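Students often ask why we bother encoding 3D structure as a string. The short answer is that it lets us treat folding as translation between two languages. Here is a chain of 269 residues written in the first language.
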Amino acid sequence: MPSSCRRANAYWFFSEADLRPHKSQYWLTSQDKREAPEQYQADVEKICDTYREAPRLAAEGTHVMSTDEKTGMQALERLHETRPVRPGLVERVEFEYVRHGTLSLIANFDVVTGKVVSPSIGPTRTEADFVSHIKKTIDTDPTAGWIFVTDQLDTHRSSTLVELVARHCGIQDDLGVKGKRGILKSKKTRREFLEDRAHRVRFVYTPRHCSWLNQVEIWFSILARRLLKRSSFTSLDDLRTRALQFIEYFNKVLGKPFRWTYTGRPLRA
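And here it is in the second language, the structure alphabet:
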């Protein structure tokens, strides 16, 4: 049977069976949505409200940052030279490569300006790495207000992060002891402190399994498509240098705020 006939038969079969084998989508809903739907809805609306209010907050001197880590960026060096696109020919890339290791990027996407602020690139993404990144970011404008939209990773609700925020906000109260008492006792008490709207530096957390609510994830996909996917890196230093160069280029040429239309609330007629 000719290949064209086989394709036609396959198309007919899938159409009749209402099957779409070429498509896929995530189906597992947020754990928070299943276990605490009211809190989930409140958290989603809080994120969207933060994005909507970001221009006003910026005018009042508060930066709104969408922050997260892109882990496992591989420094892959292709063994064979990539042949560039030519009239009538697409770019030709070979699959063999040498792996030189991985780096992690911690990035802030400024919701209002659309630029990447104070990126950190290193071999790990530990609690100390994240706190150092937040401190470095705040130090770019130490007297301003800062709001960081991020997920609920343990390193984003750590005791050292609480201590950093307390110092920057001039809070001299006893913070307690991790695992025993006070603000530092648990992830819940630390989160409540870090979310406090009265603080000049505070955090807004996405529900679990809801990374799509974090705008920096959109920017990470741009980084992956435009730099990481088809590049060849000779070393970790080469990867770090070119990632920082791409960020500089993006900020100068491509950076603009994302048009966020989702409100987190059900549509009404």
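Translate back mentally: The mean pLDDT is 90. Keep this in mind for the problem set.
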